[in-house]
Amino acid sequence: MPNVTASDLEGLIVFRLGGDLLALPVEVVAEVVPYAWLARPPQMPAAVEGVLDLGGRAITVLRLDRLLGREGGEPGLEASILIMRGAGFGLLVDHVERVRSVSGAVVLPVAPERSFNGCLAGEVMIDGGAVHLLHWPRLLLEEERRRLADFQAQADARLAAPGTP
After folding, report:
1. What pTM was computed for the model?
2. Where are the domains of the chain?
């Protein structure tokens, strides 16, 4: 997603994390669900908030603040989980502001070295301000992906086990 332009995007899901506005392309998010009760099995990776049972599917919910190296507090009443398309993961954010069209938006490029692992795809100028556009595949390192895939497999097995509520 480097050198992304507004014409490359279908739209944006704009959300708050701490005091910042960030966005993800709508095409990478399958759905937005309110923060709910999460199972917290032992030995979870540090970035994992818990596991959400979403219609019989185990969704590992990641703390976006921790992935970005920020200290966050406890999720509030407005917190939401962005379920990432085809990933088996969700991202916990403080508040989803809106789903927005990109018509009239300008995307400014950001050098990959300005963000951890190149996870910042650009800055979108909308409504008189800058919104940081995240590049979802770059939020996790390869080793983190492997560990989370193992954790996800364990969560799926636990949810499918007989006698699981």
Report:
1. 0.85
2. 6-160
